[in-house]
Amino acid sequence: HIISTVSFLAVLAFLCYEFEVRFETFIILALASMFILPHIMIWILFHSYQEKVFNGFTMFLQTFIAVFKINPKTFPSLLECEKVCENETYDLIQNMKETLLKEGNIEPCMQVLLNYQSHFIVHNLVTLVTTIENHGGLYNEGLDLIQDDIDDWIEDVYQFKRIQTSTKNKMMSLCLLSVGIAFSFLNVNLLS
């Protein structure tokens, strides 16, 4: 963080020198930048963390469904998911297992999952798993549909992130282009 701040201030000082900006204006820009940069870094780290949590959660859902198809029981499925999940998702699985053991009923366990993420896909999964646990029956088609929904959910999120990154890159390119135009205009004025 310190290196990025120092390098940003160096670039700012260079640009202010080249464009003959008053020292007071440079100080104001530098102070504003020093207050804004930490917020930008926190924002970037927060979104990176949220992406990691999303990836872990969707991996848990996909693993849960794959294991549940083989053995339609929640507790063994949670045990298998526990082996591949980490951090926040691992804690969720632990909480679900504890609730299932304590209550002895599938509904409170699945409510923990719904409380964590109330997305309609999760609600559909909870409803289907609860029905299968309580009543049995044919279920593979329903689980396949939910898996397809999860895949679409992941694809939609990544498409949004690609568009967001593309827009950010275009904005940065336009900013660099405007600095280049300003430099060329400054050089033309100096030569005149």
Describe the structure.
The chain is mainly alpha-helical and 192 residues long. 90% of the residues lie in helices and 0% in strands. It is built from 7 helices and no strands. The chain has helices at residues 2-18, 23-70, 74-84, 87-103, 106-116, 120-135, 140-191. α4 (87-103) runs antiparallel to α5 (106-116).
Helix content: over 70%
How much beta, percentage-wise?
Answer: under 5%
Largest sheet: none
Instruction: Label the structural class.
Output: mainly alpha
Structural descriptors:
192 residues
Secondary structure layout:
Blueprint: H1 2-18, H2 23-70, H3 74-84, H4 87-103, H5 106-116, H6 120-135, H7 140-191
Helix pairs in contact: 1-2, 2-3, 2-7, 3-4, 4-5, 5-6, 6-7
Question: What's a concise summary of this model?
Answer:
With 192 residues, the chain is mainly alpha-helical. It is built from 7 helices and no strands.
